[in-house]
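Feature request disguised as a bug report, sorry. It would help if multi-protein outputs had a clear separator. Right now it looks like this:
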Amino acid sequence: MKHLSLIAIALFSISSLADTNADVDRDLYGYIGFGIGQADLSTDVVADKGDKDGSAKNFTATLTYYRKWWAASLEAGYWDITLDNNKSGIDSVKLISENFYVGLVPEYRLTHRVSVGLSYQHTLGEEILAGPSTTINANNEKTTKSLAGLVANYDIPFKSFRVRTGLSFHKMLSIGNRSGYIAMVKLQFGVPFIDNKEEPVRIVYRDREVVKMVAAEVIELGEQVINFKSGSYRLSSDSSSFIEKVAKLLSDNPNSWEIVRVVGHTDIVGKATLNQKLSENRANSVKNILIESGLDRERVFYLGFGEERLKTKGTTADDHRLNRRVELQFIGKIKKDFADKIKVLVEQETKAQSGE
């Protein structure tokens, strides 16, 4: 098993090249990959002519759905297993099994990269041969249709794809007076089918690291309360006054929230690259007012998504207005009654600006 450990170390070292800002939550990824490992078969059947060991290889196509604390995978694959009792002459027995299989892997995510779980695989067509019978199983010996085991995965995110390395240990089921095991190292490459990536916030606040990928509360500030001139990131005087009110509320209740992230969005009018920069500048303008109003700069961040996350894909003036927005994303703990106070403030400002 020593060579498996060396391979695992080499695969995990790829993580040094990873995009540390990438992560997944409520995402659907498709993977293809392969695994190599060791297979062992212990037997009490005299006709088997001794225990056997050898190599195992597999090729897989996997669909993985990620949530915050768990993931689930459906996989289809191909086993190529060769077992030998390492004897010569008439006592030499070599078993070669080639089988397609389908499997289910539920996992618990220890972190956003590390997960552990269970694995169940069911072979299709012929069974995995466990004794010295022929492919037609002339001796009617028990072989296996299924395997069960444990898996541990390490996801390495890059800008537009992911690499997943892992270890697995499977036991062959229902093979009479025999027991078989397969230990493997795997490498898979994945691309997103559905990608709801959130950017991480990594800071040290109150002598501890705050790492939260998903906002605990998102409060939208539409054009009626946050207004910019077309193509500009300068706030109107009314908008600046409103942000100062928000800042005072945050400043007066420092223990009711942890981190606030200002996120800017634009419509699809104009070039995407310019809209991206515009969204960043607009979010930064709001952030600056919050800090100038007395908030701790270590608790306020900003981010721009440009036209990447549209609320509507329409092209009318109303559609564009819905897409032009700023969000206050509260990262970490936030008291519900405090979040409600901010929402009430937004509602009051919206009514005031609309003349109601």
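(second protein starts here, but nothing in the output says so)
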Amino acid sequence: MSLEINQKQLVMTAVQGGVAPAHQWAPFEVGASGEIFSWPSTGGITYNVKVGDSVFGWAGEHIEPGVSSQFTHANKKAEAGYQFMACCGNQVKVISGEGKGSIGTVLGHHGGVEHLMLDFDDEILDKLTYDDKFLIRGYGQGMTFIDHPEVFIYNLAPDLLAAWCLKEREDGCIEVPVSVIVPSYAMGSGIGALSMTTGDYDILCHDTETVEKYNLDKLRFGDFVAVLDHDNCYGRTYRKNAITIGMVIHSDSPLGGHGPGMMTLMSALDAKLVPVLDDTANMGQRLSIGRYKK
């Protein structure tokens, strides 16, 4: 047995989008502790929030690192296709404007607003405008381990999987490097969603004792994380001994039921996936992007 994937069967498809404008959700919002705030939130081109940064401490909520992008909300099926085909770790090319020809990396998708986040180096970000367009080679949906079909894989580029360095054990289980292991009860907004190939769900960080016990204060953009007793094979639900692995894609939020967002990458039942704590388990570190650009 091995961790070989069905790479020759994966379809590579071009999808194209533009910059999603920054939002103001309301003049003021109310946090879970009753605090009143008026902060930046989703959308736009964010210059100073990157993969590798902490998801905490920003004067903002649901902040998306790098470029927030979308196809168009005028066509829901095309928008869903843009989100679906673009996988974490895929290559993205700027195809217009002053930055034309520049290359970046797909980070992940954010449900509700239906944004796809893109990472570019600082010198490229400085050239981008809201008029620019991005071409993505969507590649990764449909991936499976040939010898482990019971592991469901979503939203993951083959190159990132290879850099992640999973390990097959003699007992047939698969060790997965993660930065943090999250208890089942600390998951919030997004539970019950049926599609694992778009959107995300949130890690709740409002309870101080839980944050301290599970080191949730370590969370960074781009971190690989494991969620205990959560099944994401056909929808997001509680199931004992299931494990879901994801990646952190947006910042913390004081809103009740919300927190750092995690997109689904992998899920399996019966403790098939074994999370192993590793401080280098971050997409940026594995691909040398964001704060880890060499």
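Even a blank line would do. Unrelated, but nice: The first helix runs from residue 76 to 85.
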